[in-house]
What does this fold into?
Amino acid sequence: MEAKAIARHVRVTPRKARRVVNLIRGKRASEAVTILKFAPQDAAVPVRKVLESAIANARVKADRANEPFRENELVVRETYVDEGVTMKRFRPRAQGRAARINKRTSHITVVVADKEGAR
It folds into this structure.
């Protein structure tokens, strides 16, 4: 069984989020949550929330299919970070100038699956 969770418009740059996502790819889901709890990067918090959401989605899918749910058998099969919209901000400066500030966002996707489905 496979479950997926997506967080969109997360206020973390994609490059920084990819560093965190690469830590958990291919690991067991419970181990990945523990890694993210103690990761020093700020991007670990939204990635952990998406991972926990994917685990919860797997639990709901298993309940609907009347299958037993084993959280310790879930594996993080796919994780990737795509670039979201860029928010454009302006900061006033002296002599009528304005500095343009680009704030980048990310779309974080996590797919968890059973060991059988992790081929």
About this structure: DSSP finds three helices and three strands in the chain. The longest helix spans residues 44-64. The longest strand covers residues 75-92.
